Amino acid sequence: MTNKFNPADFTIEGIRGMPLYLAMQMYKTRYADLKDFSANVLNDIPSEEFKQFCSEIWDCIVPFRTSVEILQIRNVEYRRAAYSCYGVERIFKEMQPELANRQVIEKKNHRWDEKNIERVEKIWDVYELYKFPEARLYPEPWIKVSGDRYVYMVRCWCTSTQREYLIYVPPEIGRRNDAVEAIAWTLRLNITNPKRLYRQGDVLIAEMSADSKVLPEGNREYNKPLTKDQYLKLMYSET
Amino acid sequence: MTKITSKRLVVLALGESTHTHIMEADMEIEYEQASDESIEFLLSGTGVVTHEEHDRLILPPGRYHKTNQVEFNPFDRTISRVWD
Q1: What's the pTM value of the predicted model, to 2 decimals?
Q2: How many CB pairs under 8 A join A and B?
Q3: How much is the ipTM here?
């Protein structure tokens, strides 16, 4: 059986262009059987040929069966889609993570409408830092584990899509037990003295001040993580 | 270091799927791309950054520097770009 369908035809959890097998794995994780999948997904697809194709390959698809499989997905969007299908609560039940820190930050977030008219919204951003027992994340004996007892993940929600993300941070950051510092660590600067910060998903744009300098690759300050203070005080807009 | 280029539309980041962060301006954007993750640009006019799913950003004239979010990989203990 060959697949002649364009990867861009598959959309799951808002992600277009997902590889067919991965998309079907996610659907099979979410839906109990082909009948359920057909009722919720295939019935909305106009192409009879595509419906037939998906129905034929259904039995060959292996769904995600454990939290570990999902937490090992490298692409953060694919990981998000997978744990949405699997169920975040189910992952938390299986992994039994410990909430190390939770912070709710009140922010003034700047947004623009389609006519580029600016408005200011008051938002409450929630950040949670979790410790996952290392042994639960590395069940395979052939994976060499570090000496750290825990793997740390910061849980946050996108302010424009409301999607939930689990992002790994290193143990030395996690051990500080500060969820905002952990999310700040994931954002990087290659300039000195930023004036203002803008964030759109995984992209950070720093507005330079008059005395900002661009740091060359190799400089020890290159790709420096944001500090918690920079994250809280300089972020003008997050979408 | 790559040379400075001028355009009215610059792709700031491509996702692994089909998502793209695109910046457009009403005047030429001068930009210098050191790597996929590091772009410096100068806006003489207003810049509009759009994405298929996230809300737009409006940037006033000025100098900017763009980077990408990163994530720790607990399996090989490396730091790599967050792909969306």
Answers
A1: 0.86
A2: 155
A3: 0.93
